[in-house]
Model the fold of this input.
Amino acid sequence: MMARQRRQPAADQPTLLEVGGPSPLVRQTRSEPEATQELKSAPGSPPKVVVRRSARRKRTVTAYRDADTIVVLIPQRMTKADERVYVEDMVAKVLARESRTGAPRGDVELARRAAELSAQYLAPQLGYVPKPASVSWVNNQNHRWGSCTPSTATIRLSHRMQAMPAWVVDYVLLHELAHLVEAAHSRRFWQLVNVYPDADKAQGFLEGFQAGQAHTP
Done:
């Protein structure tokens, strides 16, 4: 089968592409006027895509992940034909990047990552490596990100986190690993967890995600 030929953008359209862009939590505070268009995903092919046109944006196209949505920012005057080309390309770039740096997809990979985090962050503080009996993704945790049962050394993470950045999942994993040592959220518990360099950033990400979900109709 012949590969479909892709239409090339017109010469006067943007030449600089950015993948990632600013944090969605920062982007929400901007006063830049934007026109938003939501593109529905085909069944079985997440994520949702939102296109925002900006009058101030002249020659740049940016895409970033915002929870279960990929947001693409384009210039206001871009043609519909060029919009389709750029949006398709930018969404593909975001997904490709996530496949390289995203959260572990399977339970085996998740358990391996938990072992790495325990050795890197907890062992230097404790003098030994806390080892969970099992670490797995679950589909029945819709009101918490993760859980740990110290008596069985079992850790479970919500499937809702699978689309989140790896550093956020790492934080939740480390949080649950610390419960193997300290069941309560004691001072010692937070001392174990807060050695993670992105702890504050990850907490802010999760709080922002929950706030956004609360305002979703």
Observations:
- The chain has two domains: 16-100, 107-214.
- Residues 1-33, 40-45 have pLDDT under 50 and may be disordered.
- The longest strand covers residues 48-54.
